[in-house]
Design a protein that fits this description.
Elements: H1 16-26, H2 35-48, E1 52-56, H3 59-69, E2 77-81, H4 90-94, E3 98-102, H5 113-122, E4 128-132, H6 141-151, E5 155-158, E6 166-167, E7 170-171, E8 178-182, E9 195-199, H7 202-212, H8 235-245, H9 248-265, E10 272-274, E11 281-282, E12 289-292, H10 300-309, E13 315-316, E14 332-333, H11 342-349, E15 350-352, H12 361-374
Parallel strand pairs: 2-3, 2-4, 3-14, 4-5, 5-8
Antiparallel strand pairs: 1-9, 6-7, 6-11, 8-9, 10-12, 12-15, 13-15
Helix pairs in contact: 1-8, 2-8, 3-7, 5-6, 10-12
Bound molecules: pyridoxal-5'-phosphate (PLP).
């Protein structure tokens, strides 16, 4: 018999989700609006203290609308984290704007303030900066915000992976002028698919909601003065979100335990380093990742193959955007003065470990034992 699959990060439902979804069915609110959508927005506002929130069909849709609200258009330059998932950058291209990829720094694996400064020397007038909180670890927000302020350029946070993470006591996603969260299937909480646009600026959130519902002017007849989108979250989906949000803190605690367990289990193997946490923050530890020292004879592929051998799911680190064929025409600003890339080095030496909150003690023991064996332990 094949050993049961151990997942990287799969949905975990609790039953409360079904209650809210049932309510939607019972009241016939099977529509892209309704009481669950409104309640989910209010509950997210309370949980993150973000000000105002608009529930959308995906995190990518939220990023797209944030760019619309920032006025990003043809030939505008947008500075964006290089070490991320492509969804962070695709909406820049939807708007015919030009991404400039900013390297990661080694302390948090996020947008490098040093590279950001250098980017401003080369391109003094970008329209916006997009900063990601990779794998749930908060970026160096204070440094990044100071640079953005100095150059009078707005910051947008892609907190798709970091819902529940805080930086200096406040939630990631609430520092920039706009923030976004994702509820995709593999995220820390999920609605199967969905996203949230958040801001302290109530008018901006109203505008995002307007654009997300086909930009209908307030008239009895169908009248449109702008191009709109069909980006709203459905009332059924929002029901799942409401149920999940009740368990977000519990998911975060469990993710943190998994991270701590890996770190302790590999502490005696000097070639292994766990992904960094930001000492100024409290990370949700969405995915636990490790890097292998340069001198080691063990390659990440070997560890991933060994884990696949026991039916445990792994994943490489996100491949940096400046290495993606589709983004080849765009500029990249490295962190290191010698022109080498920190993100590329992390990609070459790293992997994501199974971080599913349903991992049993036996699963964890199997994963840990399998990794240790790769290093001759
Ligand atoms: C998942 C993710 C997104 C996209 O969110 P969707 O809800 O899947 O559209 C954007 N950015 C990052 C960093 C992500 O991990």
């Amino acid at each position: 018999m094949e050993r049961k699959r151990i997942y990287l990060s799969s949905p975990t439902m609790h039953g409360d989700e079904q209650k809210y979804v049932q309510e939607a069915f019972d009241t016939n609110w099977i529509a892209p609006l309704g009481p669950n959508v409104n309640a989910f927005e209010r509950e997210m506002e309370t949980y993150t203290d973000c000000g105002h929130a608009a529930a959308l069909s995906s995190g990518t849709a939220a990023i797209h609308l944030a760019l619309k609200l920032l006025g990003v258009g043809r030939d505008d330059i947008v500075f964006v984290s290089d070490l991320t998932f492509s969804a962070t950058c695709n909406p820049i291209i939807y708007e015919d704007a030009t991404p400039v990829f900013i390297d990661a720094e080694p302390d948090t694996w996020n947008l490098s303030p040093e590279a950001l400064e250098r980017a401003f020397e080369k391109y003094p007038h970008p329209k916006a900066v997009i900063c990601v909180h990779l794998y749930g670890t908060p970026a160096k927000l204070e440094e990044i915000m100071a640079i953005c302020r100095k150059h009078d350029v707005p910051l947008m946070e892609d907190a798709a992976e970091s819902l529940g993470s805080t930086y200096k006591g406040r939630h990631t996603g609430t520092y920039g002028i706009y923030g976004i969260y994702s509820f995709n299937g593999n995220k820390i909480i999920t609605t199967s698919g969905g996203g949230m646009f958040v801001s302290k600026d109530e008018a901006a959130v109203k505008k995002a909601t307007f654009l997300a519902t086909q930009a209908r002017d307030p008239a009895r007849h169908y009248q449109h003065s702008q191009i709109g989108y069909n980006y709203r979250m459905s009332n059924v989906t929002a029901g799942i979100g409401r149920g999940q949000l009740l368990h977000l803190e519990e998911h975060k605690q469990r993710k943190k335990e998994i991270y701590a367990q890996y770190r302790e289990a590999f502490a005696d193997i000097p070639e292994i380093t766990m992904n960094p946490l930001n000492p100024d923050g409290d990370a949700n530890c969405w995915l636990s990742c490790m890097t292998i020292d340069k001198g080691s004879s063990v390659a990440p592929d070997r560890v991933m193959d060994a884990l696949e051998g026991v039916n445990a799911e792994t994943r490489p680190i996100w491949k940096p955007m400046h290495l993606q064929p589709v983004f080849a025409p765009y500029d990249f600003i490295p962190h290191n003065a010698d022109g080498s890339s920190v993100g590329e080095d992390i990609f070459d030496r790293g992997l994501c470990l199974p971080s599913d909150i349903k991992n049993t003690p036996e699963d964890m023991e199997l994963i840990i034992g399998t990794v240790r064996k790769c290093f001759g332990r």
